[in-house]
Every structure is written in C-alpha cells, then in structure tokens.
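Re: that backbone. Tokens:
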C-alpha cells in the first residue's frame, strides 16, 4: 500500500513540475516574441556592441602594457648603459613608423624578445641573455622584427580580437543558459513523472551549466582559429619588414635558429608575443600563434639567396 502511494506521489510531483516548466516556457516564448517585436535596429545594436567591445579591449591593452612590464620586472636600459644598442635602435627606427621606443631588459622564460605597446609609445623587451647569444647583426634583426610588430600594432589587434571573441562567448552563454535550464527542467520533470527521481538539484544545475559551456567552448574554438591564422600571417609580415629594414635575411634566420636551440618556452600568457614557433600536429599548428620555425628560417634563407641592397 505504501509503495503504490509513493509512486503516485512521485508521478504527481513530476506532472506538477512538468506543468510549471511548460508554463515558464510559454511565458518565456511570449516574452521573446514581445521583445522581438520591439527590437532595436540590428545594425545599430551590432554597432553599439562592437564599439563597446573595442573600447574595453583598447583600455585593457593600454592598462595591461604597464602591468605586463611590471610583471616581467623589466628594467629600462638607458643610452649610457647600452649606447651601441641604442644607436642600432635609432637607426632602425628611421625605417619604421613607430616614434619613440623604449628599450627594456628582463629575465624571460627563454632567451627571446617581445614588443609591448603600440607605435608611438611602445617598448621592446629583450631577455638579458640575448645580447650574449646573438651577434650584433642578429640582434639588430630581432630588434627590427619587434619594431615591425609595433608598427603593425599587432599586439593591439590581437587584444581587440580576443576581447571580441570573449564578448561573443559571454553573450552566447547568457542566451543559451536559460534555454539549457528550460530543457533540463523539462527532462527533470519527465523523470519525476515516470517514477525515476532525478539527480539532486545542485548536481543537475551543474550538469546543465557544463553542457552549455561545452557549446560555448566549441563556438569560441571556431572563432579563435581565424585569429590564430591572422597572428601567423602577421608574423611573416614582421619578418618581411625586418628584412626590408636591415637588408639581411640571413641574420634574422640565424637569430631565430639560435633562439630555438637555446630553449623554446612552454605555453604561457606571453607565448603570443614571442618569436618562436615549433608547434607540431595539425590541431597544434592550427592553434599556434607563430608559423613553424623551420618554415620561417627556410623562407628567410630563400630571401638571402636573392640579391638585396642593404638600406642606408
């Protein structure tokens, strides 16, 4: 007697929950219809969203530049400490539209270099071991490569791109989460109705959030691929501009090869800024921010075989 009564109670609980979720679904549908009828101009809404995202991305980049230098514990190098290095930098700057560029040294994950900031207010950070590892011509080629990144505003473009992707992911999550909760609620109600008590509510909500996040991650992955491809193309562009400024592609090829042999840093926050690129495997190469080092070195050596006139 007690067991049939319990089953009936469970079934009634499920039916009640099912009615509640269906009522919420109908109310939500009507609300969406009402909002859609009063929707703003899609182009204007997209423009507002894009403008707000770009402003946030720009501010985060500008504020993050100073923070990055502090985190690296980078020390600015004056002309008295490294007069010849500054002479090389001044000579190279005449070939780039970068304005004043500050020179810093820091202890990075590996002997490497990176550009921070944008044209007109940027900085080049060199690992402390780099001047000992490279010849003057090779170091000049690396400086030219980093100046090319500043000139092309590559760091800012990457930051804006990833900010836009994260914003799209956040909006998508907010749009999908109510739908996921509704579908999950209906499934939970049906489970009660057929006499199979579902998992605890807290665990159920965690599962719904996890499934929604999986969908968002897949979309973000698809949006990230073109950003990574753009980063690799701009890396080639920086190589080309460095060769154009120095007239010595072999020096840049040697510098990259030495940096690779010294030690390729593991993946980290600064990986998109380094000049390395030894990733293997299709998926890894698709997600790489830099082209394979062998391809870059081979491409530069092909340029070296062609007669070039060094800029004056």
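Recovered sequence:
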């Amino acid at each position: 007697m007690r067991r049939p009564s319990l089953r009936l109670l469970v079934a009634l609980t499920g039916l009640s929950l099912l009615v509640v979720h269906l009522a919420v679904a109908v109310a939500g549908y009507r609300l969406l219809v009402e909002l859609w009828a009063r929707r703003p101009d899609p182009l204007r809404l997209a423009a507002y969203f894009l403008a707000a995202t770009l402003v946030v991305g720009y501010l985060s980049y500008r504020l993050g530049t100073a923070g990055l230098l502090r985190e690296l514990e980078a020390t600015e190098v004056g002309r008295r400490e490294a007069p010849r290095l500054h002479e090389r930098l001044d000579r190279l700057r005449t070939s780039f539209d970068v304005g004043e560029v500050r020179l810093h040294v820091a202890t990075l994950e590996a002997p490497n270099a990176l550009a921070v900031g944008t044209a007109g207010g940027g900085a080049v950070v060199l690992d402390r071991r780099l001047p000992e590892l490279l010849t003057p011509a090779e170091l000049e080629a690396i400086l030219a490569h980093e100046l090319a990144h500043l000139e092309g505003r590559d760091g800012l473009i990457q930051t804006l791109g990833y900010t836009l992707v994260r914003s799209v992911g956040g909006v998508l999550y907010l749009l999908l989460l109510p739908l996921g909760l509704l579908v999950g609620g209906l499934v939970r109600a049906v489970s009660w109705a057929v006499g199979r008590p579902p998992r605890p509510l807290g665990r159920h909500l965690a599962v719904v959030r996890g499934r929604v996040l999986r969908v968002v991650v897949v979309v973000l992955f698809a949006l990230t691929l073109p950003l990574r491809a753009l980063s690799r193309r701009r890396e080639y562009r920086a190589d080309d501009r460095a060769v154009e400024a120095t007239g010595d592609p072999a020096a840049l090829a040697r510098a990259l090869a030495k940096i690779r042999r010294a030690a390729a840093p593991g993946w980290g926050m600064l990986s998109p800024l380094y000049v390395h690129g030894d990733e293997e495997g299709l998926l890894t190469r698709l997600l790489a921010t830099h082209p394979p080092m062998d391809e870059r070195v081979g491409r530069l050596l092909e340029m070296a075989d062609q007669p070039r006139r060094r800029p004056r």
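The chain has ten helices and four strands. Strands lie at 75-76, 101-106, 113-116, 122-127.
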